[in-house]
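For reproducibility, we list the full input for the 6-O-phosphono-beta-D-fructofuranose complex.
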Amino acid sequence: MNPLALTCPTVRRIGILTSGGDCPGLNAVIRAVARDAFHCNIKVIGIEDGYLGLIENRLREITEADMAGLLLRGGTILGSNNKTNPSKHKVGTDSDNKPIYKDVMPDCLRNLERAGIEALITIGGDGTQTGATEFARKGVPVIGVPKTIDNDIEGTDITFGFQTAVATATDALDKVRTTADSHHRAMVVEVMGRNAGWIALHAGVASGSDIILLPELPFDMTRVFACVKERSDRGKRSSLICVSEGAKVKGHGQFIARRVETSPDPIRLGGIAKYLADQIEDETGTESRYTILGHTQRGGTPIPSDRVLATLLGSHAMTLLRQGKAGRMVAIQGGHLTDVDLSFAAGKQRLVKEDDPLILAARNLGTIFGDE
Ligand code: F6P
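The corresponding predicted structure, in tokenized form, follows.
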């Protein structure tokens, strides 16, 4: 007899969804959850496109056949959606073309019941876990698994997807440095991260960027100009600037690329790299170019450490369900696998602290953050 079966609870059918912006490692979590469940003869029902699939009743059973090659695959076989909130779902527009919203939680609960789903695993960021707490409040046993390249979920020290995004950004920064050196240029590379500077900080340090600009440390343009000028006066062939899409020039605020009104978080950041490159060229005379990495950071195969993290978190989610726990989010704290109350992550952001050891180390090495 399978030893796991001894500790399996009465749950015989679980639902799983991936919601919010995708990231490398989502499929690795789905695989961990499904393989673990198969051992206990628990059926796994995949919900397509996050909460939207639950509203529209688009469900399908995940089988052994879905497991082939899943660990390495980018994206999510279930699809995702970062515009749906079951408590406030757009159902049409009024005569003034204004959106009409409806609470469709009752439809979701009905669809869960019809499919015989007894517990839910929600893989997603703060928005997803906010939605998950609503289901938990309605009595659905939910376990959350934190994901995002932004690494900004409260309650866990790290999210899967982040390290792959850092690897992608570092690779791009390394490549940009070589061409910058050839042409005596200042190169600005804009990375994602929303209001958190984790990707910029880690990729900036890993690539030896000369200037790192984070949303958490509003910066002065004059400090950036001085650094580029001083480097060029010292005979340095290039200046490499890693800027987070959410970085703030003092007195200017963030650069907004677009608004997605149907999204729970409508602001999409972006555009600061062009502003920086133009200003640097005008003020210092150093030829400047910019690159926006965008969604390359969200795509592709997860690096090994993200596959490992995704597997650990997915498996822990199943362990909690087997123990009969609910309303929890699996997490890593101080290097240990643990779990926290779901509400911990809901609607919060874990930002980089001013005294983060990596900021202090980079400052000691002469990296400029522009806030000095
Ligand atoms: O939260 C993940 C993320 O990639 C952010 O880093 C970025 O600001 C945002 O999502 C982009 O969203 P979208 O895919 O809707 O453009």
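DSSP finds eleven helices and 15 strands in the chain. Residues 165-298 form a domain with the Rossmann fold fold (CATH 3.40.50.460). Both points were considered when choosing residues for closer inspection.
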